[in-house]
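My main concern about presentation is that the manuscript never shows what a single data entry looks like. The format is easy to grasp once an entry is in front of the reader. For illustration, here is how one protein appears when written out as sequence plus structure tokens:
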Amino acid sequence: MTASLALNSPSPDDLWEMDRSHSLHPWTNFGPFEREGALVISRGDGAWLWDAEGRRYFDAVGGLWCTNIGLGRREMAEAIGAQAERLAFSNTFVDMTNDPSARLAAKLAALAPGDLNRVMFTTGGSTAVDTAVRTVAYYQTCMGRPDKTDIVARDYSYHGSTYLAQSVGKRPGDRVPEFRYKETGIHHLSVPNPYRRPEGMSEAEFCDWLVAEFEALIDRVGAERIGGFIAEPIQASGGVIVPPEGYLRRMWQVCQRHDILFIADEVVTAFGRLGHWFASLDEFGVQPDMICTAKGLTSGYVPLGALILSDRIWDAMAEGGTRWFTAGFTYSGHPVACAAGLKNIEIMEREDLLGNAARVGAYFETRLAGLKDLPLVGDVRGRKLMLCVECVADKDSKTLLMDAANESKRISNLCEGMGLIVRPIGHLNVMSPPLIITESDVDFVAETLEKAIRQVADDLVREGFALG
């Protein structure tokens, strides 16, 4: 480490250099990172962040889809601190538990739809998905179907970054040649993106085509081999893709006909993002066999994930009383994390944050929809507090700009300079603000984003990029 860096009282420049010299970030882009380093965030309050130099930003990304109740909550800090003092850790392997873990499991069972009454706590969303996929194989084997273990997912899906979860997902940019992925036993269907459906096909026809594709896959592979189907109700990092009307329910019905477990990856959509505790049933009419959750479960205060599964699955696995379920993590049911989860849910209930997400989310949809009139904008999509803007070179053909245009990063950089953080992903700018957002906050986001998009469009034209 450079001798000039002060470890005990580092300056903003020291912090920037420490990080640049020693940190390997998730999804590091090595060239730009080595040149430009990272934005150092030092403080958060509500939906606002401050960097190490004191500049303030509205966090329209909500951390990573997760700071649902907002940052800086004293009662959350007190609940976390009190639990750490009382019982900082207790393992939950085999036949031990702790009171926050037991209480949170019961609370999740009460909130989850239908008979989803059993909970396995994990360290986050990736490990919840990993556990769900393993549970498919375990359950099907217990049912006397040991070959029924294949998993079906979709293109542009993101289900986490563990080896198994990233193999199940298939988001562009995640599959790099330097890594290897599990290929056998995993199948991918087309992305249910109405904006990019085949030309001349109505949305209803597109839905029919997608369901038929699933049924054809089952016919080709064999229902006796396919054990589970995993779907984000709205594909988040893959493009904030809201499927065609009726699509998820029809896919669920196909699963029911063929004894295929339906896994709802609600790591993003649960805990209020769409105005519900869970979106599968309330928003899309689907009663899943399993739900994976994390992120909003603790609003990001402490890492925690959970797999919530049905009584039917539990009963099959537990039948006979002699089997061992050999999966879990050192930090499963961590008492401090579970105490944070309980306090988080208490705050959301007390302040009606689900209601606020629904009300302000509807306004957010309306305000951002106005951006469709801008020359660079092809689509604005999503629901409630889960929206994105997709940029295109030509509105009619929906042709994307060349990667060299880097328009989404340019937009996010300009927004950052005006005190707004949005997330660039490919040709998208994605937003998932805290559930405490107000209508005036929405106005600031929409107005700032419009200024940035107009400026980038002008810059691209000056640089010779053709925009239609």
Remarks:
- Residues 262 and 361 are 28 Å apart (CA to CA).
